[in-house]
């Protein structure tokens, strides 16, 4: 279906035409239209234009208005009902009720709700959800996963080619210790030596199965990590053997690589368990960790050095920046190769850029990574640009803030340890179960569990996504699962309530009645519904999912006002009024449902 022009786009076009007719010398001046509380829309562009043309803004605005025939004129505009000059030279515009309903009818007739594909879609490589092998996932990985997943879904919905890259930490010196220990204690990662016994009879097919397997895998990895660490710290000879093992790993020794694989695979089982709980789909082919770039690192260094982008300094290969200085004004370089010959995080990221731009042909590179890595990415992007591997402005870090505890400090357990992501998710689901049971005490245990997962996980995701990314936010479960306020639960209830009304009304898809006059609450809801496509376009452009969250919250709020003021299934209503209101209900639910899905949040049919 053809994309549906929004009323704001239509009005904008009408004004631009009227402006050009009234004032040919205005060129293609922008009428600057926006939504307004006073009328439906307000145009402010006449002020700047009058200044430029040295005219009177009110007169100018009036002559524009004169070029739009409204009700009372012969052949009135079907969209604009009234246009009035106000204040110093604004134009207040009211659209016709029938135009609102007819536009919504076009949206409702389209499976995409009239949302167009981007005009010039490109290829975006997005680097998100990058946990580290043999380590637990924590709240930082929550943010990267949830934000990345939403950005992927939104870009993909608008037609962008999205390539996902999970740059997991699967390489480095710590593997020498783990592998050496495994060689000396071959039974260590064996499933048979599990004490937890949680894997018995479970499979990864269900969320619970995947989570249980994942937890068992992490328990084995933790045990391996602790045991090898203890030996590493206490036994000098083991330490030497572990260090030599790093060299074997880097040179591709077969036995060493096989054990490395075993550790990585075990970690992936764990990650998938967390992803299942988090209700996020991460595909194995998109997991391209640090190790994948290993063979390119030497060439990256050679090219940087040959091009003069990097120089040797105290044995290390470094890139310097005029504006990056440490304490006492000493320049802080990006170290691409350490003085002992080892390659680090930066070299890998540079190799990844070459691959993503050169081989994957990305136009845009996004990195959903903690703001505390901002300096790293600034230096890496600038280095790649100097080397000619990255066009200016093509890469962007979607830097996110820190998750804080109620004390306002980075979120830690009472013992001062980082909080395990799974524990946090479990707690959210538990709290949600309480909320669900209170609301619907008649549910079976199974129903409670299913809804609690959708509500609890949705609450965690929404709390994260509804804050602008760069901000720190406080992880407050009580607030997150509250039925009131800007929470996913409030949105999910709005959705479920509409479904219950639609069920009560019967099976037919409600038809709109554009001939009916609309009340104020219907107009507000209708105009907001009409802005869905534009909201998505702007969210995709700026990569800011919180704007979609804000839009959906406003939608639910507008719906609540409509629901209070415009009884839907009232015996006194005419059949047409009832059906038109059901039509508004239905489109609201579909918009809420699609919007929430783009944020990765479920909208259960009943709550
Ligand atoms: N593994 C890193 C961490 O847990 C994040 C990796 C970010 N991505 C990248 N291309 N450097 O902090």
TrEMBL record:
Main location: cytoplasm
Reaction equation(s) it catalyzes: tRNA(Arg) + L-arginine + ATP = L-arginyl-tRNA(Arg) + AMP + diphosphate
Domain called Arginyl tRNA synthetase N-terminal: residue spans: 9-95
Molecular functions per Gene Ontology: arginine-tRNA ligase activity
EC number from the UniProt entry: 6.1.1.19
Short sequence motif 'HIGH' region: positions: 131-141
Intracellular or extracellular location(s): Cytoplasm
Cross-referenced InterPro entries: aa-tRNA-synth_I_CS, Arg-tRNA-ligase, Arg-tRNA-synth_N, Arg-tRNA-synth_N_sf, ArgRS_core, DALR_anticod-bd, Rossmann-like_a/b/a_fold, tRNAsynth_Ia_anticodon-bd
SUPFAM superfamilies to which the protein is assigned, alphabetical: Anticodon-binding domain of a subclass of class I aminoacyl-tRNA synthetases (SSF47323), Arginyl-tRNA synthetase (ArgRS), N-terminal 'additional' domain (SSF55190), Nucleotidylyl transferase (SSF52374)
EC primary class: ligase
Subunit structure comment from the entry: Monomer.
Protein name: Arginine--tRNA ligase
Encoding gene, per UniProt annotation: argS
């Amino acid at each position: 279906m053809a994309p549906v022009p929004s009323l704001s786009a239509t009005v904008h076009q009408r004004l631009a035409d009227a402006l050009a007719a009234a004032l040919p010398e205005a060129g293609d001046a922008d009428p600057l239209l926006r939504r307004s509380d006073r009328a439906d829309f307000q145009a402010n562009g006449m002020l700047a234009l009058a200044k430029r043309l040295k005219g009177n803004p009110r007169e100018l605005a009036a002559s524009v208005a004169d070029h739009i025939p409204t009700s009372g004129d012969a052949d009135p505009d079907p969209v604009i009902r009234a246009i009035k000059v106000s204040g110093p030279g604004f134009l207040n515009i009211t659209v016709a009720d029938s135009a609102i309903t007819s536009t919504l009818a076009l949206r409702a007739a389209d499976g995409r709700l009239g949302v167009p594909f981007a005009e010039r879609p490109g290829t975006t490589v997005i680097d998100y959800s990058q946990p580290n092998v043999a380590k637990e996932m924590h709240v930082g990985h929550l943010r990267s996963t949830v934000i990345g997943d939403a950005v992927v879904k939104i870009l993909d919905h608008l037609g962008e080619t999205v390539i996902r890259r999970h740059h997991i930490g699967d390489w480095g010196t710590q593997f020498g210790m783990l592998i050496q220990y495994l060689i000396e204690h071959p039974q260590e990662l064996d499933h048979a030596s599990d004490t937890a016994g949680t894997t018995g009879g479970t499979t990864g097919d269900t969320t619970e199965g995947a989570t249980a397997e994942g937890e068992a895998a992490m328990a084995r990895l933790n045990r391996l990590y602790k045991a090898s660490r203890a030996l590493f710290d206490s036994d000098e000879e083991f330490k030497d053997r572990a260090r030599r093992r790093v060299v074997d790993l880097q040179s591709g020794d077969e036995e060493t690589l096989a054990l490395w694989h075993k550790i990585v695979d075990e970690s992936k089982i764990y990650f998938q368990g967390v992803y299942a709980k988090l209700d996020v789909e991460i595909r194995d082919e998109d997991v391209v960790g640090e190790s994948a770039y290993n063979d390119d690192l030497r060439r990256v260094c050679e090219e940087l050095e040959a091009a003069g982008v990097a120089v040797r300094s105290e044995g290390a290969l470094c890139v310097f920046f005029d504006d990056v200085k440490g304490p006492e004004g000493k320049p802080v370089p990006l170290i691409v190769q350490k003085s002992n010959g080892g390659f680090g995080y930066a070299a890998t990221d540079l190799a990844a850029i070459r691959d993503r731009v050169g081989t994957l042909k990305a136009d845009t590179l996004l990195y959903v990574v903690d703001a505390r890595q901002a300096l790293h990415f600034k230096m890496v992007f600038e280095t790649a640009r100097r080397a000619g591997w990255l066009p200016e402005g093509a890469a962007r870090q979607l830097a996110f803030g820190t998750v804080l505890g109620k004390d306002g400090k980075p979120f830690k357990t009472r013992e001062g340890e980082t909080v395990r992501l799974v524990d946090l998710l479990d707690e959210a689901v538990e709290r949600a179960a309480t909320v669900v049971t209170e609301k619907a005490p008649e549910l079976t245990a199974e129903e409670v569990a299913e809804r609690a997962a959708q509500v609890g996980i949705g609450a965690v995701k929404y709390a994260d996504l509804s804050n602008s990314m760069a901000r720190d936010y406080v992880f407050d479960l009580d607030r997150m699962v509250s039925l009131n306020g800007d929470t996913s639960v409030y949105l999910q209830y709005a959705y479920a309530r509409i479904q219950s009304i639609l069920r009560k009304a019967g099976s037919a898809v409600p038809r709109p009645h554009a001939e009916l006059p609309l009340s104020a609450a219907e107009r507000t809801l209708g105009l907001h519904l009409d802005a869905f496509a534009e909201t998505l376009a702007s969210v995709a452009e700026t990569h800011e999912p919180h704007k979609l969250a804000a839009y959906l919250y406003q939608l639910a709020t507008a719906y609540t006002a409509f629901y209070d003021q415009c009884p839907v299934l009232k015996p006194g209503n005419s059949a047409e009024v009832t059906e038109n209101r059901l039509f508004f209900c239905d489109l609201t639910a579909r918009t809420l449902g699609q919007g929430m899905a783009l944020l990765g949040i479920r909208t259960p049919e009943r709550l």
